[in-house]
Amino acid sequence: MAAKEVDVVVIGMGPGGEDVAGRLATAGLDVVAVEARLVGGECPYYACIPTKMMVRGADALGEARRVPELAGSATVRPDFTPVADRIRDEATTGWDDTAAVQRFEKTGGRLVRGRGRITAPGEVTVTGGAQPRTFHARRGIVLNPGTEPVVPPVEGLAGTPYWTNREAVAAREAPDSLLVLGAGPVGLEFTQVFARFGSAVTLVDNGERVLGPAEPEASAVLERVLRAEGVDVRTGTAVRRVSHDGDLFRVEFDGGEPVRVRRLLVATGRRTDLAELGVGAVGLDENARTIPVDGRLRAADGVWAIGDVTGHGAFTHVSVHQAPIAAADLLGTDGPAADYRAVPSVTFTDPEVGMVGLTESAALERGFRVRTGIAQLPATPRGFIHGPGNDGLVKVVADADRDVLVGATAVAPGGGEVLGALSVAVHAEVPLAVLRQQIWAYPTFHRAISAALEDLGTG
Ligand SMILES: Cc1cc2nc3c(=O)[nH]c(=O)nc-3n(C[C@H](O)[C@H](O)[C@H](O)COP(=O)(O)OP(=O)(O)OC[C@H]3O[C@@H](n4cnc5c(N)ncnc54)[C@H](O)[C@@H]3O)c2cc1C
Ligand SMILES: NC(=O)c1ccc[n+]([C@@H]2O[C@H](COP(=O)([O-])OP(=O)(O)OC[C@H]3O[C@@H](n4cnc5c(N)ncnc54)[C@H](O)[C@@H]3O)[C@@H](O)[C@H]2O)c1
C-alpha cells in the first residue's frame, strides 16, 4: 500500500508529544500522532499524577501521626481505598484516554493507535492495527517514546508476578508486606507511601545510598526518616535470586537472611528501545541509551526528539520545556534554545527532596572552584517551631570564580516549593551579593536559604 503523505508524524504521545502534536496541528499542519498505549503517556496514568495522589494520602497519615506530640490525640486507621478510588476515578478515569484524544483531535490532528517505527528517512510504519500503515512525513518526524521500566537480570525474577510502577498505581490496597527493589525517586516515593499505609517495607538498593545522584546529606536524611518510620533500608545489597510460590515472594540476597513478601516492586530505572523505534534508518545509534539532540531538539535530518529519551532529565517539565522549542523549529520560527542549566527535580517523599543544577561532586567534576554552604532545618527558627517532621536541610553549591550558585538542594516539608527560589537563583545566575541582600520572610522554611548562604561565607 502506498505511503500516506502528511506534514509531521509524532511517535509517542507523552506530555511532550501531546504538546508538540497539538501545537503543530493548531498551526495548520497535517499531523499524525502514533500512540501504542494511552495519549498523555506515563505521567498522567502511571507516574507523576497517580503517585502524587498516593503521596497526598500518605502525607495526611504522616501528619495525623504527629498529632500526639503537637495537638492531643488522633486515631489513625489507614485505608488505601480513597487513594485507589481517586486514582481510578479522578486521575486516570479508569485508565481511559478518551478526553485526551478528543483534546488532540480538536486541534485537527489525527491519532493512529499502534507502534510507530522509522522505516526509511521521512517514513513511519505503524503496526499493531488490522494492517500496517505507512506515512511519509514531508516536514519531519518527532520522537517522544518515553521509557519502560528496567527489569534487572536477577535469577528467577522474570517468571514472577512482580510489580512495576504500572501495577503499583493500580493497587486497591496496601500489601501487608512489600520489597521495593531500587531506591531512586520511584522506589522511594512508593516505599514511604505503602509504609505509611501499613505495609512492612524492605527497601533494597545495590548502590551505597538511597537517591544516589543526590547530595549525600540529602540521602542521609531520607534514610534516617525511612528507618524511623519502620522501613527496613538495605543499601549496598544485591539480590541473588527471586522465587514465587503462588502466594509469597522469596527474595535471597548475597549474604543475610532471605525475606518473604507479598509483593515485589521493581524500581531499578528506565530504558528505551531505540532499535525497535528504527532510529538506525536515519543514521542514529540503535544501541545508545538516549538520542542526542541539539538546542532545537534536532536529532537527525528531518527528525526531532523530546522527553526522557533525550537524556536531559526524565521529568515531565523537561519534556514540556522541549516541546514548544521543537514545534517552533518545525514551523521555522525563531526563539530561545533549550537550556538545561537549572533543571529542577523533586522527589516527593516527606520531607521532599528538591534539587536544581549541580551537586557538589558534579560541580567539582565539571572543574568549578566550588564552595558549599549548608543549613540544617531543625536549627532554623521555622524548623524549631515545626518540631516533629522537621528533618531536612538546605545546601547551596557556588562557583567561587563567578560568585553565583550552580546548584542547590532543599530537603524540607514542601522542599519542592523551597526549591522555587533556588531554581531562580541558579537559572538567572543571580549574584551571591544580591541574594545575600534579599529579605527572606521570617519564619519560613525557605529562609533556611539565607542561613545556607551565610554558611557559604564570602571570598
Ligand atoms: C513512578 C513515576 C513517577 C514519576 N513522577 C514524576 C513527577 O512527579 N514529576 C515529573 O516531572 N516526572 C515524573 N516521572 C517521570 C515522567 O513520568 C516522565 O518524565 C514523563 O512522563 C515524560 O516522559 P516523555 O514525554 O518522555 O514520555 P512518556 O510519558 O513516557 O510517554 C511516551 C509515550 O510514547 C508511547 N510510545 C513509546 N514508543 C512508541 C512507539 N514506538 N509507537 C507509539 N507509541 C510509542 C508510550 O506508549 C507512551 O505513551 C515519574 C516517572 C515514574 C515512572
Ligand atoms: N518525583 C519525580 O520527579 C520522579 C519520580 C519518579 C521517577 N522520576 C523519574 O524517573 C526516573 C526513573 O526513576 P527510578 O527510580 O526508576 O530510577 P533511577 O535510575 O533513578 O534509580 C534506580 C535505583 O535502582 C538501583 N538499582 C539498579 N539496579 C539494581 C539492582 N539490580 N538491585 C538493586 N538496586 C538496583 C540504582 O542503584 C538506583 O538507586 C528518574 O530518574 C526520574 O527522572 C521522577
From TrEMBL:
InterPro entries: FAD/NAD-bd_sf, FAD/NAD-binding_dom, FAD/NAD-linked_Rdtase_dimer_sf, Pyr_nuc-diS_OxRdtase, Pyr_nucl-diS_OxRdtase_dimer. Keywords: FAD, Flavoprotein. Residues 7-323 form the FAD/NAD(P)-binding domain. This is NAD(P)/FAD-dependent oxidoreductase. It holds the Pfam family Pyr_redox_2. Residues 343-450 form the Pyridine nucleotide-disulphide oxidoreductase dimerisation domain. Its cofactor is FAD. Signal peptide: none annotated. Belongs to the class-I pyridine nucleotide-disulfide oxidoreductase family.
